[in-house]
Write a sequence for this structure.
């Protein structure tokens, strides 16, 4: 099966701990995702739908494209080798409405890529378990916002995640695994925004877990045994809880701090199921793999400066890895990471604005000593460049 799930797990080796992608708009990239309490404009529909209440009374649309470049990851052990470099273009779209009638309710939606990417190896050792792990996801997230009082607003959304994935491995034993599959799965998100005073915004958001219930086909070979047929696997996109505070000074400077808790402990094992009568091939590739990932914290800081027609942004973040050393493999040689970002927008006229943002994600080197790996992973990097255009009508 296009083990989308395994791909999911194995794909995003940079970007964020595990395989989620929090940078899904121009502002998100420019601020290292420190963009919750100060979320505004079209992309508030995704980052904090409750904050749509504070938008100007107009329809707001934004279209972004993000280039993601993943460096090769070096491994230093009994032998030295590197993964392949990866390059991607990832689109996103956000919309937030003006007030709907006299109710003051706002509606919005986002189309984003919440998780994914890829990891590929050509050296025989990692190729035996992780020749290719690729995940492609797309999420459609409609949302509504309503004012509970002059200072408090609430938002609610519905997550629809479509996924496709590929898993391949091979060795001279001979063994072969070639699987593909897809899935459509569902979740929800909630948000609460509070303005105790005019310059201060406090927010809490929650995105539910989405279990990717992947089904597809597999071709397996293990020594003289083969299998060609159905396969399935379930892997979570974990729940995330954010607490954020943003303060705007009289100079037009906004400082935001975000605490991000991701519940990766939902990912306890990777267990592929196959149809038909078990044989050596399905047994070899079907044994459950312990993962035992850990819940993680991310700490984000964003700075926004408003000028007449310009908006300048900068961000900084520290992101923990959920992967314990005991279960870390070549498919996801993850580690803690630092992120730094810059970006800006320019207001062309009353309807149009354009912007550009960049982010660098630097993973720490990590020594791993477990039953299958004995060595050090290093030089993992991710480079993001997001270009966007916004329209007010």
């Amino acid at each position: 099966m296009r083990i989308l799930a395994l791909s999911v797990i194995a794909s995003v080796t940079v970007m964020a701990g595990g395989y989620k992608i929090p940078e899904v708009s121009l502002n998100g990239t420019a601020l290292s995702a420190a963009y919750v309490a100060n979320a505004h404009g079209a992309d508030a529909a995704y980052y904090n739908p409750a904050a749509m209440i504070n938008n100007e009374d107009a329809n707001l649309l934004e279209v972004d494209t993000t280039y993601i470049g993943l460096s090769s990851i070096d491994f230093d052990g009994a032998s030295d080798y590197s993964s392949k470099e990866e390059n991607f273009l990832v689109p996103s779209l956000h919309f937030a409405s003006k007030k709907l009638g006299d109710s003051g309710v706002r509606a919005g939606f986002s189309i984003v890529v919440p998780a994914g990417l890829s990891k590929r190896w050509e050296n025989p050792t990692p190729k035996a378990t992780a020749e290719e792990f690729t995940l492609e996801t797309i999420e459609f997230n409609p949302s509504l916002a309503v004012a509970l009082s002059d200072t408090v607003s609430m938002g609610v959304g519905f997550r629809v995640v479509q996924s496709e994935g590929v898993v391949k491995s091979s060795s001279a034993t001979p063994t072969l695994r070639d699987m593909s599959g897809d899935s459509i799965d569902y979740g929800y998100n909630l948000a609460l925004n509070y303005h105790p005073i005019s310059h201060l915004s406090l927010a809490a958001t929650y995105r539910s877990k989405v279990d990717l219930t992947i089904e597809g086909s597999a071709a397996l070979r293990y020594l003289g045994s083969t299998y060609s047929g159905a396969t399935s696997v379930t892997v979570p996109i974990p729940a995330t809880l954010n607490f954020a505070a943003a303060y705007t000074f009289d100079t037009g400077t906004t400082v935001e701090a975000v605490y991000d808790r991701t519940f990766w402990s939902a990912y306890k094992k990777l267990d592929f199921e196959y149809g038909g009568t078990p044989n050596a091939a399905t047994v070899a590739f079907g044994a459950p793999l312990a993962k035992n990932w850990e819940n993680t914290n991310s700490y984000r800081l964003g700075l926004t400066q408003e000028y007449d027609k310009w908006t300048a942004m900068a961000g900084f973040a520290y992101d923990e890895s959920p992967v314990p050393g005991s279960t870390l493999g070549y498919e996801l040689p993850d580690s803690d990471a630092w992120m730094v970002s810059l970006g800006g927008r320019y207001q062309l006229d009353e309807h149009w604005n354009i912007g550009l943002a960049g982010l660098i994600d630097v993973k720490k080197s990590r020594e791993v000593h477990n039953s299958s790996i004995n060595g050090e992973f290093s030089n993992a990097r991710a480079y993001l460049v997001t270009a966007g255009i916004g329209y007010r009508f």
